[in-house]
C-alpha cells in the first residue's frame, strides 16, 4: 500500500519533468542538422541558425512548397540563387522537368529532377528560370501542364528569361514585368499585352513576381521570403548566405496588398 | 597562254577573298550558340555577348580548366555562383565527386558528377565549396587525391567552409584566409598555422583564393577571372549576369604579383 501511494505521488512529478524537458532544433534548413535535437537553447552547431523549441518547429514545419521547373539549358545561377534562399527560409523545394531523364544546366551540371510533369505534386509556388527558355516555352505539353496547375498555384516566380515561359502560358497579360536586360524588347514583342520594364531588379504584381537576369533571382527570392514570412526572416537569410549586398525592397512592388 | 596568265593573276585575289571572309562567333559561353557562326560582327542573338572573329576565338579556345569538387551536402549557391561566372568567362568547368553516383546538394538538388576521383583529368584550377564539408575533409582518400594533383594545379579556390577541405590537405598553412562568417573560430582551430580573417569577402594569396560564405563565391570568382583574363572580362561577366552589386577588388589581395 505504501509503495502504491509512493507511485501515485511520483506520477505527476514524472509527467511534469517530461513536459518541461524542452528540446531545441534549428529552423528547417535542408541540412543534416534538421534532425539534430539539442537540450539547451542557443545556435545550431552545424548551420548556425538560432534554435527554436521543437514544438514551435512542428508548427513551422507546414512548409511553403515550391516547384522549380528545370529544362535542358537552364541557367545555373538563375535557379541556384533562389534555391539557396528558399531553402534557408524553410520552404520545401522540389525539382520538376518534362521527364525524369537527366538534364544539363548550362552545358555543365547534370541534374536528375525529382519529378516529371506526369507525377509532380501541386505546390504553393511555381518557379521558372532562364537560359534556353524556348525549350519549355515552345513545348505545348509543358505550357498546358503549367496552365493545368494554375487553380492551385498561389504564386508564380520567374528569373531572367523564365518570364517567356510564364508569358507563353498567358500569365503576364496586363501585368508590369521584367526579364534579362538583353531580352526586354523580345519579351515585349512576345507578350504585347504586358508592360515590360528595364532597369528594375524585380516586379511584384501580387501573385506574380518576375525578376531581371541571373543574379537578380537572389533579390527576387529574398523579396518573396519577406512577403510570405516577414522582413526579419528575409534579412536573416541574407545574413546567413552573406548577401551583404541585399537591399530590401529594391524592386518594384505593385502588389495590391502593398 | 593568255588564260594561264589570267589564272595566275586571279589566284592571289581568290586567296585574298578567302582570308577576308571573316566569320564571327560569340566568346565560349557553354550555351548552344557556341557553335553558331555569324557573317557580320555584332552581338550574339542568343547570349548577347559581343562577337569576336572566329580565328581569335580559336586562340581563346585554349580554355582555362576548373575542377568543381562536389560531395553530398554541398551548398548549392556556393558552387553555382562561381560556375555561372567561370562559364561566361569561357573557362571549362568539370564536376568531380568521390564516385560517379548521384549526390544531393543541400538535400534538394540531385547531381550526377562528370568524373570520379579515379578518372578525373587534371585541371588548372581546383575548386571546393562549403556545406557538409566534413564529408570531404574527413575522407583520407579524397584528401590524398587532392594532394596528388597539387603539382599540376595552378590555382586553388574555396568558397565558404570549403576552406576546411583545403586546410585538411595542408594547403592553408602560413596563409591568410577566410571562410563562412560562423566558422571563423572553427577554421582557426582546425588550421592553427593559418591566419583566418573575418569580415573580408575573399583573400587572394596568389595561388590560393579563399572566400567568405555562400554568395561571396560570386565575388571571389569574378576576382579570379579579373586576375587571369583581365578586369574588363570580369566586368563584362558581372554585367552579363546582372551582378550590378559587383565591387571590383572588394576582397584582400595578398598576391605577390599584385
UniProtKB/TrEMBL annotation, chains A, B:
Gene Ontology MF annotations: metal ion binding
Keyword tags: Signal
Pfam families, per the entry: DJ-1_PfpI, HMBD
Keyword Mitochondrion carried by entry: no
Presence of keyword Signal: yes
Domain (Heavy metal binding): residue spans on this chain: 23-54
Transmembrane segments: none
Domain DJ-1/PfpI: 65-226
GO annotation (BP), single: regulation of DNA-templated transcription
Signal peptide from the UniProt entry: 1-21
UniProt-listed PANTHER family: ARAC-FAMILY TRANSCRIPTIONAL REGULATOR, DJ-1_PFPI DOMAIN-CONTAINING PROTEIN
Protein name: DJ-1/PfpI family protein
Organism: Mucilaginibacter pineti
Amino acid at each position: 500500500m505504501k509503495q502504491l501511494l509512493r507511485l501515485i505521488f511520483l506520477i505527476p512529478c514524472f509527467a511534469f519533468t517530461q513536459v518541461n524537458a524542452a528540446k531545441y532544433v534549428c529552423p528547417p534548413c535542408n541540412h543534416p542538422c534538421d534532425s539534430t535535437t539539442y537540450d539547451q537553447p542557443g545556435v545550431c552547431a552545424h548551420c548556425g541558425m538560432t534554435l527554436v523549441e521543437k514544438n514551435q518547429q512542428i508548427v513551422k514545419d507546414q512548409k511553403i512548397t515550391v516547384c522549380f521547373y528545370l529544362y535542358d539549358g537552364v541557367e545555373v545561377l538563375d535557379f541556384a540563387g533562389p534555391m539557396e534562399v528558399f531553402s534557408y527560409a524553410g520552404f520545401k523545394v522540389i525539382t520538376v522537368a518534362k521527364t525524369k531523364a537527366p538534364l544539363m544546366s548550362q552545358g555543365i551540371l547534370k541534374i536528375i529532377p525529382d519529378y516529371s510533369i506526369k507525377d509532380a505534386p501541386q505546390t504553393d509556388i511555381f518557379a521558372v528560370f532562364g537560359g534556353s527558355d524556348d525549350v519549355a516555352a515552345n513545348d505545348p505539353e509543358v505550357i498546358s501542364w503549367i496552365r493545368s496547375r494554375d487553380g492551385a498555384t498561389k504564386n508564380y516566380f520567374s528569373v531572367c528569361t523564365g518570364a517567356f515561359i510564364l508569358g507563353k502560358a498567358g500569365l503576364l497579360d496586363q501585368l508590369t514585368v521584367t526579364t534579362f536586360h538583353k531580352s526586354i524588347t523580345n519579351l515585349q514583342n512576345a507578350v504585347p499585352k504586358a508592360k515590360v520594364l528595364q532597369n528594375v531588379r524585380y516586379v511584384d504584381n501580387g501573385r506574380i513576381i518576375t525578376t531581371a537576369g541571373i543574379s537578380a533571382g537572389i533579390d527576387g527570392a529574398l523579396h518573396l521570403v519577406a512577403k510570405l514570412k516577414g522582413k526579419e526572416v528575409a534579412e536573416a537569410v541574407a545574413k546567413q548566405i552573406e548577401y551583404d549586398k541585399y537591399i530590401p525592397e529594391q524592386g518594384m512592388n505593385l502588389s495590391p496588398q502593398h
